[in-house]
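Consider the tokenized backbone below.
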């Protein structure tokens, strides 16, 4: 009988891995900007999943994102500000109106800077919804809270982001000093 249980666990884990590895790897890569580190995070996430296979809720992907978030934080590499990759990249001249492309780039930079000024929990909620396209149940599983609490956290994060976008942006130096000294919320 135990052999059948083990075969079922292997099949369940294989399905879980096949369905969600790319999403977990992408999640880690967007935060670490390093494919090798992202692969390490994904490996650690699926090691945890294997060890806790019987504890994974129906919202598997959300649970995996929650584990991935904690693994990324544990690596202490999540300190890269969201705007760093945008500040190092200048708009590339391509076919089409360069003025429109530059304005779009500036808008994107302003949004990224506003997101970067938010607290880590607010950034986490917004990025899980925007980048990972999690449903309400998956978001709740990723955050380790009820669906209602996840919805409230998302609403509050969106409200704070809107406020950041409407307020004059602090200087780049101020934002980096507060982040380095841990003065953010």
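A designed sequence for it:
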């Amino acid at each position: 009988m135990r052999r059948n249980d083990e075969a079922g666990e292997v099949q369940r884990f294989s399905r879980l891995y096949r369905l969600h590895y790319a999403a977990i790897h992408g999640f880690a890569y967007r935060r670490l900007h390093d494919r090798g580190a992202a692969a390490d995070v994904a490996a650690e996430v699926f090691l945890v999943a294997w060890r806790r296979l019987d504890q994974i809720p129906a919202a598997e992907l959300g649970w995996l994102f929650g584990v991935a978030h904690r693994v990324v934080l544990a690596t202490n590499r999540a300190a890269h500000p969201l705007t760093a990759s945008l500040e190092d990249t200048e708009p590339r001249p391509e076919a089409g109106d360069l003025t429109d492309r530059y304005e779009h780039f500036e808008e994107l930079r302003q949004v990224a800077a506003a997101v970067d000024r938010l607290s880590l929990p607010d950034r986490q909620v917004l990025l899980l919804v925007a980048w990972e396209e999690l449903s309400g149940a998956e978001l709740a599983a990723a955050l380790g809270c009820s669906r209602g609490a996840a919805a409230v956290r998302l609403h509050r994060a969106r409200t704070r982001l809107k406020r950041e976008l409407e307020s004059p942006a602090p200087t780049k130096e101020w934002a980096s000093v507060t982040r380095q000294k841990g003065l953010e919320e």
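The mean pLDDT is 78.
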